[in-house]
Design a protein that fits this description.
The structure holds two protein chains of two kinds. In chain A, about 0% of the residues lie in helices and about 55% in strands. By secondary structure, chain A is mainly β. Chain A starts with a strand and ends with a strand. In chain B, the strands form two sheets. In chain B, strands 2, 4, 5, 6, 9, 10 and 11 form a seven-stranded mixed β-sheet that branches. In chain B, strands 1-3-8-7 form a four-stranded antiparallel β-sheet, with no helix packed on it. In chain B, a hairpin with a 2-residue loop joins β5 and β6. Classes of the chains: A mainly beta, B mainly beta.
């Protein structure tokens, strides 16, 4: 069964600090992996997408890494801001036309002043 | 509007009642998805539409759940004889076409509470 596991479940950090969120998956075959940010009461919004051949991709203060051999991804947030407080969801998809996505359960990040 | 919209934003109903949840996708998006998200969990797939047809409804938990998209745009998720376990946030997403690389754009969700 395709699975996506994320760690930690929740995290509290001080404003200005860095943090790294982890995503391990068993989805196979693999096409791409997205990190979404979901603010409370809102739908998820895509931060980055990574394909099999990509190792690192940045979007502002967010940097995602992917190791397709070990089926692991991470999302690193630099110089955190209060507005980074949200749930971060890792989503993995297979190739081809229609494929259901497999969602992780998310990491709930709280940035405190 | 530029994004996916969902109405109502909140719905409180009594056990046994019928509810309809509406999704307005981004104009021109042919693929539409419904998900259910419980507190502290990731979205759980319910049903996928390509155009007017339900291409995959394997995520619907039982026959109390039904969804339509009659004109290939707006979709309605219908829940009959609601149960307390149906309480969750129901998310709708749309994408330009069903290609694995295409981003799904999510609406804000409808929070359903069954008393």
């Amino acid at each position: 069964k395709n699975q996506v596991e994320q760690s930690p479940q929740s995290l509290i950090i001080l404003e200005g600090k860095n943090c790294t969120l982890q995503c391990n998956y068993t989805v196979s075959p693999f096409s791409n992996l997205r990190w979404y940010k979901q603010d409370t009461g809102r739908g998820p919004v895509s931060l980055t997408i990574m394909t099999f051949s990509e190792n690192t991709k940045s979007n502002g203060r967010y940097t995602a890494t992917l190791d397709a051999d070990t089926k692991q991804s991470s999302l690193h947030i630099t110089a955190s801001q209060l507005s980074d407080s949200a749930s971060y969801i890792c989503v993995v998809r297979g190739p081809g036309g229609y494929q259901k996505v497999t969602f992780g359960t998310g990491t709930k990040l709280q940035v405190i002043p | 509007g530029a994004g996916v919209s969902q109405t109502p934003s909140n719905k409180v109903t009594e056990k046994g009642k019928y509810v309809e949840l509406r999704c307005d996708p981004i104009s021109g998006h042919t693929a539409l998805y419904w998900y259910r998200q419980s507190l502290g969990q990731g979205p759980e797939f319910l049903i996928y539409f390509q155009g007017t047809g339900a291409a995959d409804d394997s995520g619907l938990p039982n026959d109390r759940f039904f969804a339509v998209r009659p004109e290939g745009s707006v979709s309605t998720l219908k829940i009959q004889r609601t149960e307390r376990g149906d309480s969750a946030v129901y998310l709708c997403a749309s994408s330009l076409a069903e290609q694995s690389y295409n981003e799904q754009f999510f609406g804000p969700g409808t929070r359903l509470t069954v008393l």
